[in-house]
Amino acid sequence: MMSSRTPAKVTQLTRDPAWESQHTYYDICPWSHDGRFVVVSSAPVDGDWTPFGHDTLACRDGRVSVIDMASLQPRAVATGAVYMKHGGAFCMWHPTQHRIYYRQNEESFARVDLTTGTKDLLPGRLRQLSPDGTTFATLLKSPHQGGQGTAIGIMREDGAEDRELVSRERLHELTPNRREFRPDDMTLGNTKWRPDGQHLLIAMWIYPCPGVRRSLYIVSRDGAEVRWLTHFAHHHSWTPDGQQILFNDRVSVGEDGASEPRMFFIDFDGTGRRVAVDEPIGSHPLMHPDGTSILDSDRDGVYVVRLDGPRVERLAAFARSFDGSHHGTHPHPVWNPDGSSILYNSAESGHSEVYHISLA
Q: Can you give the three-state secondary structure of the chain, one letter per residue?
């Protein structure tokens, strides 16, 4: 990859030899609405780690903390959360209030109001809160099947009115390569709200059938519109204006069947699928709030792709390599709301810690 280094100030926000820490995910903003605080979750490095879900590990002694970005001082606000190697306690903010949500355990989540100090325990497995702060996208067990991730649901912010939006059986009917697998083979998830909050982007993958192409789908908030969007290989996100989807796929590079990763765009209506960056890159892409660049990471560090070139610029290099699997640490670099700062995870110290890049 052709790259240059852009001057950036990198600060390690968490630093505890006994606890690993991470922010949640590349599509979950860790900053409060006013930029005052960052939310992270942590777990004992030597804790009781047990298998969780398909391919990660969990510890039931997780804690949730907020970091004051003026003083860089952390403050624990919750303990006893289920913390996953991939995603931590899945903490997120309300978009207009100092209110935090996180996964308490496999079947419930907690809501902590930092202003009043109150904590509510509510049923459901949250995924992402809508931009208006009223509705969660959730992972459900479909009435037709028994496993987690067999349907996508929506749920009110207070945990009420949890209902199924679309099942994998319905999405299977719309999938071009559906004859290669059964609905029972599908897992749904990685659901993302469109910036206007009126549609959801849903990913499908198939664990028992390696080689079968994955799909992305668009579902309206009321469930009236359900359509197949495109095949993809790895991770996806909305552009800030909600008119396009950025995702990773592979392209053929030779007659021997070899392929390489590429970042792609596709329009909201399913047309205009095209390569976004003609470089063999792509992991967890996220576009800058002004739409001019794409943030991502690889084994060496954090980089941005400037789309006016395009050119690839390295912002932070990892001091040493580390396990980047779901049992290890995913960097998951993410912008703050105005694009002047970045947060990412790194295990270059020996276990996961949270780092901050200032671009201002």
A: CCEEECCCEEEECCCCCCEEEECCECCECCECCCCCEEEEEEEECCCCCEEECCCEEEEEEEEEEEEECCCCEEEEEEEEEEEECCCECCCEECCCCCEEEEECCCCEEEEEECCCCCEEEEECCEEEECCCCCEEEEEECCCCCCCCCCEEEEEECCCCCCEEEEEHHHHHHHCCCHHHCCHHHEEEEEEEECCCCCEEEEEEEECCCCCCCEEEEEEECCCCCEEEEEEECEEEEECCCCCEEEEEEEEECCCCCCEEEEEEEEECCCCCCEEEECCCCCCCCEECCCCCEEEEECCCEEEEEECCCCEEEEEEECCCCCCCCCCCCCCCCEECCCCCEEEEEECCCCCCEEEEEECC
